[in-house]
Amino acid sequence: MLHTIKCLANNKLVYEDITFHVDNLKEAEYFVRYLKDLGVIATVHSYKDGKAIIRRIHQSTTDKISNFLNGGLY
Q1: How far apart are CA 62 and CA 4, in angstroms?
Q2: Structural domain tally of the chain?
Q3: What is the pLDDT of residues 52-63, one digit of tens each?
Q4: Bridge partners of 56?
């Protein structure tokens, strides 16, 4: 939690990187499209040697903690 607060205090996004083993980049991009259909904000951060790093943005957490840091009672 402290890491999250420090990131937001420095105007950085709150995210989680997840490593997936895939056959190719196209497969990783297809998975990200599927996540977006489910309402998850995600991107393919990197791909190398069959490993894709998917970055999931935690928008709700970002919004709530940013509000607290700005003096809100959210």
Answers
A1: 8
A2: 1
A3: 999 988 766 656
A4: 16, 42
Residue type, 51: K
Could you tell me the two tokens for 12? Answer: 């950085």
Q: Extract the tokens encoding 71.
A: 């003096």
Per-residue pLDDT at 35: 93
* CATH at residue 12: 3.30.70
Place of tokens 């970002």: 62
Q: Which are the contacts of 63, defined by CB distance < 8 A and separation ≥ 6?
A: none
Instruction: Answer whether 0.70 is exceeded by the pTM.
Output: no
Q: In this structure, is residue 74 part of a structural domain?
A: no
Looking at the DSSP bridge assignments, the partners of residue 21 are 51
29 CB neighbour count, 10 Å cutoff = 16
